[in-house]
Amino acid sequence: MPPARFLIPIFLFVATFALALGLTMPLMNVSKLYFFDENPSLLAIIGSLWTGGEWLLAAIVTLFSMVLPIAKLGVAQLAAMQVPAAAHALHRWIGLLSKWSMLDVLLVALVIFGAKTSGLATAIAQPGLWFFTASALLSALATHLIVRAERA
Predict the structure, then answer these.
(1) pLDDT tens digits for 111-144?
(2) Can you tell me the distance from the alpha carbon of 7 to that of 25, in angstroms, rounded to the nearest whole number?
């Protein structure tokens, strides 16, 4: 077993754990007019969008921030088990899901940037964002190693 192949299960485990923390821990601290503070998690943001009547936006955020990362980790776990019959299809799915893996982190970064530049609020990244980013990066690294090992 090549040394990089040994790291794949570790990266996938840590990415899965980090994704769970990234979904539930506060993503950012938003202070409005220095009097009102909010520390929303990704799940709280989706719930707020849903209850506020923004169903389409809630569905899009859910798809790109929860469903696709969870699906990517699930497919990567299956591909890491080296099931020969399904290897080609799994690697194709990994490639498709990997294209969207950092979009959600970019969107949160844009929200923080927008809040900071508007002058009406300040936004500071919280641990949830860092865990969410770590999950995206580790899953990307693991899927890269899986595809590279398949080609070798």
Answers:
(1) 666 656 666 667 777 899 899 889 988 998 888 8
(2) 26
**Global pTM?**
0.78
Quick: pLDDT tens for 40-50. 788 888 888 88
DSSP string, 44-105: HHHHHHHHTT-HHHHHHHHIIIIIHHHHHHHHHHHHHTT-GGGHHHHHHHHHHHHTTTTHHH
Q: Which residues, in sequence order, are CB contacts of 141 under 8 Å at separation 6+? A: 11
What are the extents of the domains in the chain? 3-26+39-151
Residue 52 backbone phi and psi in degrees, to 5: -85, 5
The set of residues, in sequence order, having a beta carbon less than 8 Å from that of 44 and lying 6+ positions away, is none
Q: In angstroms, what CA-CA distances link 37 with 29, 45, 115?
A: 7, 14, 13
The most distant pair of C-alpha atoms in the chain lies apart, rounded to whole Å, by 59
